Amino acid sequence: WLHSTTHSLLAELLRLSPTRLLVVLATRSDHVGFDRAQTEGLAMLLDAAPDGQRLELDVLPLSAEDEEKLLRCELRAETVSPTFSKALRSRSHGNPFLTRELARDMLTKGHASVAAGCAQLSHGTGTSANASSEICLSESLLAFVLSRVSGLPSDLLLVAKVAACIGTSFDLRTLASIGSTMEGASTNGMDLALNRQASPHGAKSQWSMESLQARCQALELYGLLRCCNASASGGVSSRNCNVPSFGFVSEVVREGLYSTLPFAQRASLHSALADGLWSELLRAPSGSHQEGEAYANLGHHLACARKPAEAKACFERAAACAKGLSEE
User: Fold this and answer.
1) In the chain, what percentage of residues exceed pLDDT 70?
2) Cα dist from 292 to 111, 286, 326, whole Å
């Protein structure tokens, strides 16, 4: 997690060192694109490297074909069934580490098997369309995520957990809304005070968008979040710059954080999210794609809040919107 001072120091070392240095630098392409300081610092380092002594490797996700080859090697199978490959890829997104861990875990738990040289989903697991929902985090992946977050300051860990209830990506307005809504309410034992002792204005002020932006930027430095628009990191973006947005660097990170919340606390947080989504629903034009999406999102949070009847009604409205749009 480099900053401008580190970039300058490395560049000076490359220029002034009497001996040859090997500098290995890993960057996220999406992060560099949005963070002006990172982009300028990277350019400074690349300019300092002597001509002909710079090697750049673009590490991309595995293709479907390469991931299947990895599965064959990992599971010692001659072939991999298409349903198994599709189900696993929907969770790994071509990340080789996740591919190995998820495949091994599915084999151990009996969700997949190797018979007659073919790796396939076990009977009863379902098709690739719904099998991905049954692929849960393995103990090793959960331990990996927990090791990443165990040393976080308590206020940053709380923000990350609440954000995990929203989804893979979120904006600060939604995060601030859920925090202030839950403050002082019954949260099944969850203390939503980010910093009671350090805040002279009370805990509630800690859920302001300004305070949350600073905390999300800190989580970005810890490698857990990424900036989704420039207003959060100082760059330029064509997206809506009025509301800073962030996202988890991986769905695995989000799920790991989410799994640390007791079910009762998850239900309380999802209920607060559902309350806040009603205002979004009122702003959406009737019968529009936005309305259908809002109803589907609301239904998801109501279902997680253990309100099945209300969730069912929202999903039916979302389906009606989709049907209406398809017939136009």
Assistant:
1) 79
2) 34, 9, 12
